[in-house]
Amino acid sequence: MATVEPVFGNLRYDKKLDRFTLRGQKKLNTQWHLYCLVHNIEKLAHYRYAM
User: Fold this and answer.
1) How many domains is the chain partitioned into structurally?
2) Which domain covers residue 32, as residue numbers?
3) DSSP 39-51
4) What is the pLDDT of residue 7?
5) What sign does the dihedral 39-40-44-45 (CA atoms) show?
6) Contacts of 31 (CB under 8 A, 6+ apart)
7) How distant, in Å, are the alpha carbons of 32, 44, 45 from that of 50?
8) pTM for this one?
9) Do you know which InterPro entries this protein is assigned to (predicted)?
10) CA-CA distances (angstroms) from residue 25 to 32, 34, 37, 43?
11) Residue 27 vs residues 4, 10, 36: alpha-carbon distances, Å
12) Which tens digit of pLDDT belongs to each residue from 14-44?
């Protein structure tokens, strides 16, 4: 079992992504997906260096 809270903490406090800057559902979803993409790419980069 995993918890998702560290993901939000990482995005909010470490990357300073604590608010959305765009208006509208489609733009907001796009911005959220970009935030998640940044988080996942960083995880992949750290995982590859650890191997």
Assistant:
1) 1
2) 5-50
3) HHHHHHHHHHHH-
4) 80
5) negative
6) 20, 21, 22
7) 27, 10, 9
8) 0.69
9) Tnp_DDE_dom
10) 10, 14, 18, 27
11) 23, 22, 14
12) 888 788 888 999 999 999 999 889 888 988 9
Q: Is 15 left (phi over 0), alpha (psi -120 to 50) or beta?
A: alpha
- Residue 33 sits at φ, ψ, to 5 deg, of -65, -35
Q: Which residue has the tokens 């993409």?
A: 37
CA dist list (Å): 17 to 2, 43, 45, 46: 22, 17, 20, 20
Q: How many helices (H) and strands (E) does the chain have?
A: 2, 0
| pLDDT for 39 | 87
What six digits make up the tokens of 41?
Answer: 């790419």
